[in-house]
Design brief:
Blueprint lengths: L13 H4 L2 H18 L12 H15 L11 H5 L6 H17 L4 H12 L2 H5 L7
Length: about 130
């Protein structure tokens, strides 16, 4: 008896599900337009060089979603320390990402999986502030 794997579904990474590098570029560019326009989030990014942030976010997102890109930035808890980022900030940030992914035409399961994957890093981003701040 011969076993065939020709019809076995292959696992597609979240990176590929959202369109690879081109998909991430598009999502991040639209995403940060919303983040900067959000009165809750804008102050968090006021002194941040946005071009560098976009570059690092693209790297981070690609790496977090199992893409070929490695994240070359610092430890998340270190780069977010002292910024006063709260759970409310993180929720707003994730909410904008969710909306941009949905509006980009990605299916609901993929969108939720991306947000869930990034939420694994919430404690590193929020740090000591948690629910307060």
């Amino acid at each position: 008896m011969t076993t065939s794997t020709a019809n076995t579904p292959t696992s597609v990474s979240l990176y590929d599900q959202i369109g690879g590098a081109a998909g991430i570029d598009s999502v991040i560019d639209c995403f940060y337009e919303r983040v900067i326009a959000d009165p809750l989030l804008a102050p968090v990014f006021a002194a941040t060089p946005m071009e560098r942030l976009r570059h690092m976010q693209k790297e981070f997102l690609a790496a977090a979603l199992d893409g070929p890109q490695e994240y070359s930035g610092g430890e998340l808890n270190a780069v977010h320390a002292g910024r006063g980022i709260t759970a409310a900030h993180f929720a707003a940030f994730a909410g904008h990402l969710f909306e941009v992914l949905q509006e980009s035409g990605h299916d609901g399961d993929s969108v939720q999986a991306v947000v869930d994957r990034l939420s694994l890093h919430a404690e590193d981003v929020i740090g000591e502030y948690g629910e307060e701040g």
